[in-house]
Design a protein that fits this description.
It is a single chain. 41% of the residues lie in helices and 13% in strands. It is of the alpha/beta class. Strands 2-8-7-6-5 form a 5-stranded mixed sheet, sandwiched between helices. Strands 9-14-11 form a 3-stranded antiparallel sheet. α1 crosses α14. The termini are far apart. Bound molecules: ligand F0G.
């Protein structure tokens, strides 16, 4: 059969409240044209993020009932720890309430002012947690990764020559760790090859630098390796996953992604000394090391989700359904980052709306229009998120790319929902010349995309 179906039946549903264009126009204005301020009840399809928004399975829901809520020594923790150790192979597993808490603990202990942490691309919370230590978060993505039209199969790879050059230039003493984000969210959900993971590990080992993986979408990455790296064609997903992590000294993880849970995260390491320090800090900030900011029931849901995500039928559906959205849009001539990523499709707004200058936020214009057209919430990943003022000249500095991300929650929407999204984007594409830009009328000092107020230009 050529048709790929969702490999699940639906047992429990959440109603979607339909609304019309006039009400959406009212809601958007009331939200100051910032989609973060919308009420979820006023959204028809929510593609803001794939984080914590997936549907749990019946096995995960039954795990919730088994949750052992003991403060210390919970059975749910034992299950959580064993599952993660079996899948990833690390010695120490430390639960946290989500990915960024694991990042905070890791970087607080390893980084100091003036250090540099190289990666393929740091995700924004990773970057912020590194910079909070006075450390530089350095992106060393291969050139293909920055070219929206390149169809290179592993656009998430880290440039090994650039890494060696940085190590030679600044010296190992200033590099407390090297990171790899798999898949590379900031670069379009693009995978990293096993060959690249291995090469990064070899460079790290040769220089005695710890190597950590930001593992949020590890199973999606493993599926890409199986499909695109000849040597792994016949390998099982779990053997690919176990090889990927065998090259690393530890990882940070947001369980809201590939553990298909609504909340949670963890930090792994092979160093007993570091694990002890991490646990001490955990007690201060998250909780006792057998729950780390989570309820026992969350630990159960994560343990089950970590196993379910390795199912090849699930992964095939997952990657093919994101690709389906990307292929449909690209087929209509709509400019997207190629090839389609694992968890999201990114629309290239500099090409979609060439008449809107970066100073008028083309990504924000498209994101607002998709909401007005069909009640779809997406996220701007461009100059609203990354733009800033030059501290010396006061001039506006814009983002390299102006993107709108359509992130697909796991097991949540069906093919007809996705067809609805395609139709909405196509309708906006057909009248793209009529779209106007936006201006910011109120903004906070940092992370402005979450809370800024906007107005359409000329209104
Ligand atoms: N690393 C990556 C690659 C991520 O994509 C995220 C979250 C985190 C770390 C942080 O994890 O949210 O559990 O604290 N990404 C979400 C997104 C928010 O929408 O892409 P967290």
């Amino acid at each position: 059969m050529k048709t790929i179906i969702e490999p699940f039946r639906i047992k429990s549903v959440d109603p979607i409240r339909m609304n019309d264009k006039d009400s959406r126009s009212f809601f958007l204005k009331a939200a100051h044209y910032n989609l973060f301020y919308l009420h979820s009840r006023d959204i028809i399809i929510d593609l803001l993020t794939d984080s914590g928004t997936g549907a749990m399975s019946s096995a995960q829901w039954s795990g919730i009932m088994l949750g052992d809520e003991s403060y210390a020594g919970s059975t749910s923790f034992d299950k959580f720890e064993k599952t993660i150790k079996d899948i990833m192979g690390f010695e120490y597993v430390i639960p946290t309430h989500q990915g960024r808490a694991a990042e905070n603990i890791l970087f607080s202990l390893l980084c100091k002012e003036g250090d540099v942490v190289p990666s393929n691309s740091h995700f924004d919370t990773t970057r912020a947690n590194i910079e909070a230590q006075g450390t530089e978060a350095l992106d060393l993505l291969i050139d293909e990764g920055n070219d929206p039209k390149s169809t290179y199969p592993f656009k998430g790879n880290l440039d090994i020559a650039k890494l060696e050059d940085v190590i030679n230039r600044i010296g190992v003493d200033k590099i407390p760790l090297i990171m790899l984000t798999i898949t590379n969210n900031a670069g379009g959900g693009q995978p990293v090859s096993m060959e690249n993971i291995k090469s990064v590990s070899e460079v790290a080992k040769a220089n005695n630098i710890p190597f950590y993986i930001d593992a949020c979408r590890f199973a999606e990455n493993a599926y890409f390796i199986k499909k695109r790296e000849e040597k792994y064609k016949k390998s099982s997903i779990s053997s690919i996953v176990s090889e990927m992590f065998s090259y690393a000294d530890g990882c940070t993880m947001s369980a809201k992604k590939d553990a298909i849970a609504n909340i949670g995260g963890f930090l792994c390491t092979n160093s007993s000394d570091l694990a002890q320090e991490q646990k001490n800090l955990l007690i201060l900030t998250e909780g006792f090391p057998t729950y780390g900011g989570l309820a026992g029931r969350d630990l159960e849901a994560i343990a089950v989700g970590m196993q379910e995500v390795l199912d090849e039928d699930y992964l095939e559906y997952r990657i093919k359904s994101t690709t389906y959205l990307g292929d449909k849009l690209a087929g209509l001539g709509i400019p997207i980052l190629l090839p389609p990523g694992g968890h999201a499709i990114y629309i290239d707004c500099l090409s979609f709306l060439p008449h809107i200058p970066q100073s008028e936020f083309p990504g924000q214009a498209l994101a607002c229009e998709l909401y007005l057209e069909a009640g779809i919430r997406s996220s701007e990943i461009g100059s609203v998120m990354f733009g800033k003022k030059d501290p010396e000249t006061g001039k506006d500095l814009f983002s390299k790319m102006e993107l709108v991300r359509l992130a697909v929650p796991r097991r949540t929407y069906t093919q007809s929902h996705i067809d609805y999204v395609v139709e909405a984007v196509a309708n906006v594409w057909d009248r793209r010349e009529s779209l106007n830009g936006y201006k910011i009328v109120k903004e906070p000092k940092a992370l402005r995309h979450f809370t800024a107020h906007f107005k359409p230009v000329g209104k």
